[in-house]
Amino acid sequence: MSITDLFPPVSPAPDAECCECGTRTSAPVVVRHLVTGSSHGVTLYACPLCAPTLTPGPHPGEVVRKR
Ligand SMILES: [Zn+2]
After folding, report:
1. Rounded to the nearest whole angstrom, what is the distance from the C-alpha of residue 40 to the centroid of ligand 1?
2. Which of 2, 27, 29, 56 could disulfide-pair with 51, CB 3.0 to 4.6 Å?
3. Could you read off the pLDDT of 7-28 as tens digits, one per residue?
4. More confident residue, 4 or 46
5. For residue 11, how far is its CA from the centre of ligand 1 (angstroms)?
6. pTM of the full structure
7. What does the pLDDT read at residue 12?
8. In the 8-state DSSP scheme, what is residue 57?
């Protein structure tokens, strides 16, 4: 057994692009979930700096489909 067996490589943290300032953040905050014509909608993320300035919208699972 080697040291690499004890510490497997960790995948990089998932990151997302901030919908407000456009920078990529490793700590994205879900601010809104848009329902598009396709079956799955689009989730918008914000960086921690922009998140408090944005009005939160429905999150995934909270979206009410219009008839
Ligand atoms: Zn931002």
Report:
1. 24
2. 29
3. 766 655 568 999 999 999 988 9
4. 46
5. 23
6. 0.63
7. 57
8. -
**Separation of 66 CA from ligand 1 center, angstroms?**
30
For residue 3, how far is its CA from the centre of ligand 1 (angstroms)?
39
How far away, in angstroms, is 28 Cα from ligand 1 center? 9
Mean pLDDT of the residues in the chain: 81
What does the block give as tokens for 44? Answer: 């918008």
What is the 20 CA–ligand 1 centroid distance (Å)? 5
Distance from the CA of 52 to the center of ligand 1, in angstroms?
A: 10
Residue 63 has pLDDT above 70, yes or no: no
Helix (H) or strand (E) holding 64: none
User: Tokens 């490589």 map to which residue?
Assistant: 9
- DSSP string covering 5-56: HHSPPPPPPP-EEBTTT--EESS-EEEEEE--SSSS-EEEEE-TTTGGGSPP
